[in-house]
Amino acid sequence: MKITLAKRHGFCFGVKRAIKLAESNENGITTGPLIHNQLETERLRSKYGITINERLEQIPEGSRVIIRTHGIPKHDFKTLEARQQIIIDATCPFVTKPQKICESMSEEGYQIVIFGDIEHPEVKSVMSYALTPPIVAATMDELPSAKLKERVALVSQTTKKIEDFFKIAEYLIMRCAEVRVFNTICNATFDNQESAKHLSQNSDIMIVVGGRNSSNTKQLFSICQEQCAASYLIEAANELQPEWFFDKEACGITAGASTPQWIIDAVMERIQNYLSSKEV
Amino acid sequence: MKITLAKRHGFCFGVKRAIKLAESNENGITTGPLIHNQLETERLRSKYGITINERLEQIPEGSRVIIRTHGIPKHDFKTLEARQQIIIDATCPFVTKPQKICESMSEEGYQIVIFGDIEHPEVKSVMSYALTPPIVAATMDELPSAKLKERVALVSQTTKKIEDFFKIAEYLIMRCAEVRVFNTICNATFDNQESAKHLSQNSDIMIVVGGRNSSNTKQLFSICQEQCAASYLIEAANELQPEWFFDKEACGITAGASTPQWIIDAVMERIQNYLSSKEV
User: Fold this and answer.
1) Whether B247 contacts chain A with CB within 8 A
2) Most buried in the list A115, B21, B78, B234, measured by CB within 10 Å?
3) Could you give the CA distance from residue A78 to residue B114 in angstroms, rounded to a whole number?
4) Under a CB-based contact definition with an 8 Å cutoff, are residues A162 and A189 in contact?
5) Are A104 and A153 in contact (CB under 8 A)?
6) Whole-model pTM?
7) Of A33, A45, A40, which is closest to residue A10 (Cα–Cα)?
8) pLDDT digit string (tens) for B8-21?
């Protein structure tokens, strides 16, 4: 069996930057998980004393608070400032962009439409910047009932699929006089998705490594499933099952933007071991 | 054989308005054909003395000049003003809209992209309002070589198909940080197209009545051809051939936005005559 790692996979710029910030701010408190990868946040806790606390009003005044990569709602930022916390902003710059767009476009009177999951922390942070209530839609079905203005500004959660974003844009273009479309899907997401698509088309088993609560990992998994029936989403090497690989010829591996290389390496090592021990 | 006229067909608001203006300005000179229908412009000539002259510098000073529905380039307008012509502006308001958008968006520094045929008078008029050279593309193939700015404003020729407009929009959304999409396809075009699509799906012969140089008529014809193999584009009733209707059960009829009702009536009458004379 041939094992191939997707050309583009794993850590993106924003995640790398956030981890560096956390490592250089020992004993900092993150506002919710810094990234959606439990094994990595656990590593940061054990090695650098980085803890998690989503209840901002409980964080002692004057603490060193690290903003998670997904950003936080605008009013939470104000809460932290009011409590005179030392703020280390690890919000991914790709998330800061839609935040700013929401603010300026709603200031200019545009109806804001966010393509994303209303429960995802990134979307919660982005929507908080709109000065008027934004429309948030994770699927086309969530749009038709929405009242639309003549002038609409559209942004996307950074980790969404571009094809789905197009569908939302088309729906709006059909109905509104002007649609300002800001393609805020981040490059790393897009590149990882393209590589995963290509690799899964040429594999008979695909392993997607990443957090089950990670939006971009879930998107990768969905793309792989479309192309390769034997696709599996795992968080760590110990979830692998040797029988998955029986009679398989081409194994593809990809990983979400919040999956550290050490987890990917462990996964690859275990699969290699299956091969050498002839378990597969 | 059952004969059905498309629910929405023929004259649009802009054409009706232009003809009214021409009829109330006898002996006026139009800047090129007022509308893309030779039989109707001939009627205006014989009944109201409306003539056509595209060479604006040849029109005697102080003449009554009627601007065609498709608009004219901005500098031509200035020529007319300089020659102190009496200007009657029959530019369709749906064309004035993209003209204004091109002007204001290029003023704001956006790269203008016009989805349309560069040789069409409407597109020539619209593009003349851009302060920086616009990109004009009639198909996707005309886009890739174009250099795109980060911020792009997209308008459409009023008579294009919405599905093709979406494709151009997608291409730009994929490549540009911001795309301001102005859906300038006019309602009448859209409604006529939807009706033609629906009717041609339920017909085994489709007659499209309109000028061969009329953009919206050509679009209707293309839509009908996609749904019904026996589709014919005619300018007048005398082009009909009885043998087209042999063994046909459902005949659909539609007409372009510049096709007057009297031509459509003549077409329907002739088909009815085929039926009653049992030629069919």
Assistant:
1) no
2) A115
3) 44
4) no
5) no
6) 0.86
7) A40
8) 999 999 999 999 99
